Amino acid sequence: MINVVIMGVCGRMGKANIDVFSEDSEIKVVGAVERPGSEYIGMDAGNAAGLKKIGVVVGSELDAVIEKADVIVDFTNPEATLQTLEHSVKYKKAVVIGTTGFSEEQRNTIKEYSKEIAVLLSPNMSQGVNILFYLVKKAAELLGDEYDVELFEIHHNQKQDAPSGTALRFGRLIAETRGKTLEDVGVFSRKGRIGKRKMGEIGIMALRLADAPGDHTVIFGGPGERIEFTHRNISRRTYASGALKAVKFLAVKDNGLFGMEDVLGIRSL
Fold first, then answer.
1. How many Cα atoms are found within 13 Å in the side-chain-facing hemisphere of 229?
2. Tens of pLDDT, residues 157-173
3. Does an H or E element contain 182, and which?
4. How far is CA 204 from CA 63, 78, 254, in A?
5. Is 134 exposed, middle or buried (0-12, 13-18, 19+ CB in 10 A)?
6. What is the pLDDT of residues 199-243, one digit of tens each?
7. Which structural domains are found in the chain, ordered by start?
8. Distance from C-alpha of 18 to C-alpha of 256, rounded to nearest angstrom
9. Contact present, 7 and 84 (Cβ < 8 Å)
10. Cα 156 from chain centroid?
11. By the 8 A CB rule, do 149 and 182 touch?
């Protein structure tokens, strides 16, 4: 049995995680944490997620439940996640991170923490998206610089960061395959008389619509043709199912920084 504490348990992903994790016989949710002052504090976490009771009360302090845990699951915000990591290092607990929007400095901090504990960091826990990361990287290798690249993503209108972490990951993979960095070749807005498209640039556009869980499309455009890779998500349970796989993978690790490509066994393909 793997004991899990879920951070941000009453957010969109927190509720999806409760839903999926509570169905698995190998997982036991032993802690549910929300921000101080949340209206859900004191409620049963299952009820807070719109499900039946699971016997775990929503609290506001990770320290109150962390000793029970094998793995902490955090889909919150960068600042809150870094606080989770600080506590997790203190108690030597593994952490699965689905949070996006980290700065380069924050990502380096996560790398430092992973020297002491096991950390799995992924901008997208979907199995399909992570397989698409692999396929898009291979396409970039095969097509070379002659093909223009454009990406667009669609998320719900409450999402705080743009472009999405997933879109940025696609962009970075393509840029690195071409020997560049996304910071050098990424184009995130176009307006007015901008002139012709520059060779090698990677365009990324973010759309925000209603309650869309997350769609991503990568387009390679060459002479007389376009190749399009699209992933459309219809439920946050997709991400929660990936997080569940990540928990089982990470529970037996002592330390190190991992991604979903490690969980799926495609890093070295």
1. 20
2. 999 999 999 999 999 99
3. helix 182-185
4. 40, 22, 37
5. middle
6. 999 999 999 999 999 999 999 999 999 999 999 999 999 999 999
7. 2-125+236-264 (3.40.50.720), 127-232 (3.30.360.10)
8. 26
9. yes
10. 15
11. no
In this structure, what token pair is assigned to residue 210?
A: 């209603």
| Upstream peptide bond of 163 is cis (omega within 30 degrees of 0) | yes
Q: Which residues are catalytic?
A: 155, 159
Residue 120 backbone dihedrals phi, psi, to 5 degrees: -115, 120
Given its phi and psi angles, is residue 92 left (phi above 0), alpha (psi -120 to 50 degrees) or beta?
Answer: left
Q: Decide the pairing of beta strands 215-222 and 225-232.
A: antiparallel
Beta-ladder partners of 121: 97
Q: Which residues pair with 74 in a beta bridge?
A: 7, 97
Q: pTM of this prediction?
A: 0.91
Residue 201 main-chain phi, psi, to 5 deg: -70, 150
d(CA 177, CA 208): 29
The candidate with the shortest Cα–Cα distance to 144, out of 203, 200, 184, 216, is 200
- Cβ-contact 58, 85 below 8 angstroms: no
Which helix H or strand E contains 247, and what residues bound it? helix 237-250
DSSP 4: E
Q: Name the residue with tokens 């529970």.
A: 251
Under DSSP, is residue 109 helix (H, G, I), strand (E, B) or coil? helix
